[in-house]
Amino acid sequence: MQSSTGTVIYSSAGRLRSLPTEVVCDLARAIPAVLVPFSSPMFEGVVEIDGCLTAQFDLVQAMGGAARTGAYAILIKTSVGLIRLRVDSVSLTSSASFDDAPPGLPEIEALIAGLAPADTIPQLCADSDGDVALKRFDALVVKSGEVVIALPALDVERIERIDRRCRVEIPRKGESDERIVVVAEEIMSGWSLGAHFREKMNKRSDGMIINGVKIDDEPWGVTLRIGERRAVLTVAEIKGITSTPLHHIQCTRHRSGVSTWLPDSDYGVIELIAPTEFDGVYSSPLALEEVFSAPSLEKQEQREVDRETLTARMGPFSCVFSSDMVIEVLGESQLQEIGNHRKNYPFFDLGEFLGFSLGSKTTRARGLVLRRLKRRSIVLLTSGVERTPLLPEWRPLPIVPPLVRLLFQSVRIEGSSCSFMIKETLFKQRPAPEIIPFLRAAYLGRFGGF
Fold first, then answer.
1. How far, in Å, CA of 196 to CA of 204, rounded?
2. What are the DSSP calls for 36-50, one per residue?
3. Measuring CA to CA, which residue among 360, 380, 361 is closest to residue 372?
4. Is the peptide bond before 392 cis (omega within 30 degrees of 0)?
5. Are 66 and 106 in contact (CB under 8 A)?
6. Given its phi and psi angles, is residue 63 left (phi above 0), alpha (psi -120 to 50 degrees) or beta?
7. Half-sphere exposure of 66 (CA within 13 A, CB side)
8. Reported pTM
9. What CA–CA distance (Å, rounded) separates 38 from 43?
10. How far apart are CA 346 and CA 315, in angstroms?
């Protein structure tokens, strides 16, 4: 693969940037990242896609756009390891970078400056030249009349046959190519491929009449994802999926913009069209609020557990302690008893220590008494303590904030939350200077307020 000649053009908050293909490892639909402590707003968290666990950064937000609205995630190689970048759109081309798309690497390196490097580099598939091989780009080929286009497979949710006699309407206030389609009993807006490209089709149409208007005979509905919503494109034929190597895809410049083309053995070339082209008046989607919830206790009880560790849960995070670190686990009544007997334990709030607060003593229902070498034991207050499930497996830390590197030795994703394995030496030795401000913020006194 001659990756050194290729270029990836991406857009974030309306700004075009370019990357050489030798630093681009993968392109996927963006998924919500799992929150990591001590991270900035642009550090979205960590994600696991196709078995590769990496940090994810919101480049759209960093460039002034709305947070968590970018539809795609590019996996790239940086000076400190692999990261995913959330962007609005991506164009793949083998030509040189366009003049209006300056190099994006300087901005990306500035975004990750000061972060701790990844522990290991995930093993990715390499080609015969030693470069990290890009996945082939998959697209769905559809046809209406003489018009044949390709749609990014990442944007296609489903394909269904439509009953034309009762399931398509032309909206009274819409444009000539707009349609109202019923798919699986759901009313959805969309467009007709044939009507949208009318100038490329034969003037004569053998379509049918609906409400006195002749429309194209397009019995297939392709449900597309556009931002946070869905829409339907009606087409006459589904030609199937095509898979194209990145360096075979060409972008060409025209008087009114840029188009992207895929080589095809049947049609010569096929234009690759993003769903947003059909929806010119649609504005950027609003960011959805992320909700973090722990797995249910019923599911936890059915999972095999690790008898050598204990998990302390607090908000969106879980901290896993070796059983050698824990002297005992205290319930709420035992915590109250400690206060009544004025036992001289220093108390710390786990949530405050991790950089967030749930704001109420009622959320501190459990206490971990932690062993310290030649020092007084401490009590770490948390909302819950349970046995640690054996699965999923622990992974090396990806690129993370430096404090995460000081506190934890490994990580794993469990649904919408992260679990971190605490370093066994963390509370046994004098804390690092960077940790002391967080310990002071988490300190609740000798009796924890009980």
1. 15
2. -TT--TTEEEEEEET
3. 380
4. yes
5. no
6. alpha
7. 12
8. 0.63
9. 10
10. 22
Q: Which residues pair with 147 in a beta bridge?
A: 144
Q: For 347-398, what is each residue's pLDDT tens digit?
A: 888 888 887 765 544 466 788 888 877 777 888 888 888 888 887 889 999 9
Q: Tens digits of per-residue pLDDT, 95-147?
A: 444 567 889 999 999 999 999 998 876 655 444 444 444 456 788 999 998 89
The amino acid at residue 35 is L
Query: Two tokens at 2?
Result: 């001659």
The one-letter amino acid code at 285 reads P
How many Å apart are CA 218 and CA 105, to the nearest integer?
A: 44
In angstroms and rounded to an integer, the radius of gyration of the C-alpha atoms of the chain is 27
Residue 143 and residue 235 in contact, taking contact as beta carbons nearer than 8 Å: yes
SS3 for 284?
coil
In the three-class reduction of DSSP (H, G, I as helix; E, B as strand; rest coil), residue 147 is classed as strand
What's the Cα-to-Cα distance from 282 to each of 94, 154, 198, 223, 387, rounded to whole Å? Answer: 30, 19, 21, 16, 48
Helix runs in 306-435, H state only: 332-341, 350-353, 402-407
Cβ neighbour number for residue 222 with a 10 Å cutoff: 23
**Cβ pair 328, 338 in contact under 8 A:** no
Q: Which residues contact 291 (CB under 8 A, 6 or more apart)?
A: 416
The token duo for 358 is: 């749930």
Alpha helices in 306-407 (DSSP H): 332-341, 350-353, 402-407
Question: Per the structure block, which two tokens stand in for 76?
Answer: 């790239």
Q: Residue 139 is encoded by which pair of tokens? A: 């697209």
